């Protein structure tokens, strides 16, 4: 586990030091602006003066640093920790931990994103930790207050990092209920859900005080949804003209969000089949083995990413096959990917949105690698996995 962590850290630091540079994307600039505002004692003041456009945990992390270098170094450590968590999760599932850990350690998209000032790296590690903490609870004989407490803390951290994490938390709690179907699971899941809600109350009250409305998450949900279903939507994001349109410039933050949320609902109601037809396009973008961005689609980049992801996807499928009689393991490890698919069948698709599912998928890849190794040796362990 320590070796995997060091390899992951070296890969992220090495790429980040070679890459250097400032802020390459608009989202990076927005997060950095929020962090500078927070560090100056002005609170979370972002684009257009909005105060609830992002969840606060990641800007608070960035606010600890005076410059990009320190923030990126912290992300290298956080990102490397996800590799160690995948290693531990794999060992609990019965997969070779070093394979799963190295998949996360050397994944090119995870390496690249760790040097971008975006919330993905923090969300990936938080959700990997959540799955690791919750996995022993799939067994009826394993249940304790500290274990459920750890799940609750990590669930809160994940939601405070990115609001979309609430879907992953809810799916995990439902999964535990369905797997266990006992009183302990019911009480534990209810307690975790209650703790998450209570943890969000201070954020909601802060937003109510500043905006005059109860906002439990952020005020970007409306425009994010509209981006995915707007007229002429292609599955990619294109907000440049939309958010600066004349009809929204004079709106306050609450009305701004409500405007786009209402427009998105009207688009869905007027032509639902167009939205359905866009879903596979968005999913193809999200799970593409090569990058979608035009500036990152050189032949060399395509070869590197396809050379990594095509074999990885094959190993994931083999891992599913090797545990085909173990529905709990397969569903539990696929659950983050299924949540990504649900979200980004409606919202825009991008490879960055699949990152949170990669640690769990890496465990399936580890199972696939073990199955291949077992077949090459001519032996077979339990469930078709090398013993």
Instruction: State the secondary-structure class.
Output: mainly alpha
Work out the oligomeric state of the chains in this entry: single chain
The whole-number mean of residue pLDDT values reads: 92
Name the beta content range: under 5%
Taking all Cα atoms into account, the compactness measure Rg is: 21 Å
- pLDDT < 50 runs, ≥5 residues: 381-387
Relative helix content: 55-70%
Q: Tally the helices: what do you get?
A: 17
Terminal CA distance reads 20 Å
**How many structural units, i.e. domains?**
1
The global form is: globular
Order of helices and strands: HHHHHHHHHHHHHHHHH
Main sheet properties = none
* Total number of strands: 0
Q: How would you describe the overall organization of this protein?
A:
With 387 residues, this protein is mainly alpha-helical. It has one domain. It is 68% helix and 0% strand. The chain has helices at 2-19, 26-39, 57-62, 68-93, 97-106, 108-113, 120-134, 145-161, 165-180, 183-211, 221-229, 246-249, 253-270, 272-286, 299-322, 327-343, 358-377. Helix 4 runs parallel beside helix 7. The radius of gyration is 21 Å and the shape is globular. Mean pLDDT is 92; it is low at 381-387.
